[in-house]
Amino acid sequence: MQGKITLVGTGPGDKDYICPRALQALEQSDIIAGYKTYIELIKTLFPEKQFASSGMKKEVDRCVEVLELAEVGNVVSLISSGDAGIYGMAGIMLEIVAERQSEVPVDIIPGISAATSAASLLGAPLMNDFVTLSLSDLLTPWELILKRIRAAGEGDFAVALYNPRSKTRIKQLDTAVDILLQYQKPETPVGIVKQAMREGQQVVLTTLGELKNADVDMLTTVIIGNSQTQVINGKMVTIRGYRL
Amino acid sequence: MQGKITLVGTGPGDKDYICPRALQALEQSDIIAGYKTYIELIKTLFPEKQFASSGMKKEVDRCVEVLELAEVGNVVSLISSGDAGIYGMAGIMLEIVAERQSEVPVDIIPGISAATSAASLLGAPLMNDFVTLSLSDLLTPWELILKRIRAAGEGDFAVALYNPRSKTRIKQLDTAVDILLQYQKPETPVGIVKQAMREGQQVVLTTLGELKNADVDMLTTVIIGNSQTQVINGKMVTIRGYRL
């Protein structure tokens, strides 16, 4: 009996935004594993399945558990919200399978990323070149994150910020704003999206100059415009130059 | 009779990667409009629909046509491959609706982006911060693109390259490689994906030092790793630091 691991990106959460290939993989799984918040969202769709949920910062343990379940013949889906390959579980899962010299096959099914779903609610802020950046320094040294914020400003990139602020990590966003203000005007449009396509969805437009005062937490996606970003009819749009 | 415009991201092309909300919007449309290559892909799914296809570089005309069709009461879907908000039709459509002071409602349904689907086939190369960059200088000045390539190197970002090379624009990719080689080693892993999730799919792993010699065209997505990217068991993975 050959087990299997499938990394599944479940998009923003609502089943209308999960692609058919991902739904099919979940349907065909013996066990669906993942971070407990995302498992709760998926449970309602597949009430008859077996689930294995775990807490935050338990990523390695979660992957080891998934591998052990697959090694004994289970078809296991490991879910990430958004896309499994963007700050999701795909990388660490591949690492652990290789490290253990396992021959369990691993498939990755892409999903609609948090940046993409947030952008669609705001308008079209990512129409041209952009940077995807996490402000969490749990896995990336803060000095490197600082360098990346500067590079984003230097290149006049729009910026999609993940993990902008947590309960204990509150200054990073302020520092990012201060750095970007060296390159962009205070009136640069900024979009803030919480719970995209889910109950309690919030979509707020503000500016880079006002971003420090905004209501932002760990589950918020923040999109900061570049020098070509405007608010048109209430929508945030980064102009790509078609009209020139 | 109120018309409506829906921007629909159709993902890599195969219907298994189009989210249910997008399929529903296409199903409910009177007319589906878009660039002819993408319309051909969608036509097979909705053979009974009315289609309006147009050529490349006709983006403005296409949007004006869509708006005029919606103004007289049609429900029109305008499709982009991947996500409509990433080098797609969302921005220019919102601009034209505003410019004409139209009150036709515009909805945007996100899709799985080309970078995301390519990444899922390669492994997990976009696991940490990355830059999404188009090498086409039709809509962005080449000087600005150069600055952005340098910024990508400076920030040790992985890079998802769109429009890496066309029949007439062949030097840009070579220049990008030369610049990135000032920051990254020649053995930095690079993934090349053509026709993701479609007939004729090609997935190739190479290195930054060899990228100039690779078979790359306008419909190829190129993902260049950063200093933390490795090839593990044949998969391209950007390590995010979980194991430290």
Give a brief rundown of this model.
Chains A, B: InterPro entries: 4pyrrol_Mease, 4pyrrol_Methylase_sf, 4pyrrole_Mease_sub1, 4pyrrole_Mease_sub2, Cbl_synth_CobJ/CibH_dom, Precorrin_MeTrfase. Chains A, B: Keywords: Cobalamin biosynthesis, Methyltransferase, S-adenosyl-L-methionine, Transferase. The structure is a homodimer of 244-residue chains. Chain A folds into two domains: 4-112, Cobalt-precorrin-4 Transmethylase, domain 1, CATH 3.40.1010.10; 115-238, Tetrapyrrole methylase, C-terminal domain (Methyltransferase, Cobalt-precorrin-4 Transmethylase, Domain 2, 2-Layer Sandwich).
Structure report:
Chains A, B: InterPro entries: 4pyrrol_Mease, 4pyrrol_Methylase_sf, 4pyrrole_Mease_sub1, 4pyrrole_Mease_sub2, Cbl_synth_CobJ/CibH_dom, Precorrin_MeTrfase. Two copies of one chain form a homodimer. The model of chain A has no long low-confidence stretch (mean pLDDT 94). Chain A folds into two domains: 4-112, Tetrapyrrole methylase, N-terminal domain (Cobalt-precorrin-4 Transmethylase, domain 1), CATH 3.40.1010.10; 115-238, Methyltransferase, Cobalt-precorrin-4 Transmethylase, Domain 2 (2-Layer Sandwich), CATH 3.30.950.10. In chain A, the strands form three sheets. Chain A has a five-stranded parallel sheet, with helices on both faces. The first copy, chain A, has a five-stranded mixed sheet with strand order 7-8-11-9-10, with helices on both faces. Helix content of chain A is 29%, strand content 26%. In chain A, helix 6 packs parallel to helix 7. The termini of chain A are far apart. Chain A has helices at residues 20-27, 36-43, 59-71, 90-99, 114-122, 142-154, 171-180, and strands at residues 4-9, 31-35, 50-54, 75-80, 106-109, 123-124, 130-134, 158-162, 189-194, 202-207, 220-224, 229-232, 235-238. With 244 residues, chain A is of the alpha/beta class. In chain A, strand 7, helix 6 (142-154) and strand 8 (158-162) form a beta-alpha-beta unit. Chain A is built from seven helices and 13 strands. The interface between A and B is large, with 73 and 73 residues. Strand 7 of chain A pairs antiparallel with strand 7 of chain B, so a sheet runs across the interface.
